[in-house]
Predict the 3D structure of the following.
Amino acid sequence: MKELAKDILIEKGVSPSYHRLKVLEYLLENRNHPSADDIYRKLIEEIPTLSKTTIYNTLKTFVESGLVESFNILQNEVRYEYNLNPHAHFLCKKCGKIYDLPDYDNCLKNQIIAGHEIHDHQINLSGICKNCREKE
Amino acid sequence: MKELAKDILIEKGVSPSYHRLKVLEYLLENRNHPSADDIYRKLIEEIPTLSKTTIYNTLKTFVESGLVESFNILQNEVRYEYNLNPHAHFLCKKCGKIYDLPDYDNCLKNQIIAGHEIHDHQINLSGICKNCREKE
DNA sequence: TACAATTTTGTAATCATTACATAATTGAAT
DNA sequence: ATTCAATTATGTAATGATTACAAAATTGTA
Ligand SMILES: [Mn+2]
Ligand SMILES: [Mn+2]
Ligand SMILES: [Zn+2]
Ligand SMILES: [Zn+2]
C-alpha cells in the first residue's frame, strides 16, 4: 500500500497544490535526507518555471504542519525528511552520507526534563561509515 | 583552583598567543554557549583592532585540537563551549537560552554502531524552558 | 640583526536562507 | 460563466554567517 502524497497532505490540512505534491512525492521517494537545493535541482527538470522560494515556502509549511522533519546535522544547510518514526542520524565525515539509526531513538519528546518542556529531540552522530571503513 | 587559559593551551600544544588567550578566557568565563559573533562583540571592546577572522581562525584551531566543542543546535549559526564532559543541550524556543543537561549524555563516542565508527555525538533538545514556563 | 615561520588583519567572495512585492491560480459566490 | 477574495507561486534583492586569500604584523631563533 503505497502512500499517496495527496492523501497525506489532505489529512494534515495542507491544501494539495501541484508544487506541494511534487515536493512531497520527492521526499517519499528519496529517503536520503535531501537539502532544499537537492529537491529544487531535481524538480526544476520537469517544472522549468519552479522557484527556489517555492521550495523553501513548501518545506516551511510541511515542517510547521508536522508532516516533515528538518534537522541541523550540518552546520551550513538544513536537511529534510519524511520519516515520523523517532530515530538518530549518523553523518559520515568522509562520504557525506546521512544514515538512519532507528535503534538509538531514546526519544524524550513531550517529556519534562529539569523543568524544561521537550518539544523536539535530535540525535546527531558523526564519524566514518561502514562503507568508507571497508574501503580502507 | 582556577583553570589557567595559558596552561590549557600549552597542554594541548596550541601556542598561547594574546588573542587565543583572550578567546579561551572568554569561553572559560562565559558558559552560555556563545556564537563567534558574541565573542567578537565582547573582545572588540578591549581589543579595538581585533578582526572577526581571528575569532573564526582561533575557534577552528581550538575545535581541531579538541580544546573546545562546537555544535549546531541552531540552523543559522554555530555555537561554541569549553566543556569536555559529555552532555546534552536544550534550546528554549521562547527565550533562546541554551541549557546543559548533564544527565542525558548517553554518549556513544568511539563506539561502533551498525558498522559505523562514531567520532562525535550531539544531543539537541528544544522546547520551552523552566523559566519561560513559570512566567505563563 | 636577519630571516623564516606563525599569527593576525582586511577585504571580498560564497552560499543558504529570508523578505517582500508582484503575479498567477484557485475556489466559492453571484 | 464572471467576479472577487484568498491562497499559492515567482523573482529579485537583501541578509548574515562563514570562508578564501593575500598582505601585514609579530614571534622565535640563528
Ligand atoms: Mn532520517
Ligand atoms: Mn554545553
Ligand atoms: Zn562514508
Ligand atoms: Zn526560555
Q: What stands out?
A: Residues 2-81 of chain A form a domain with the Arc Repressor Mutant, subunit A fold (CATH 1.10.10.10).
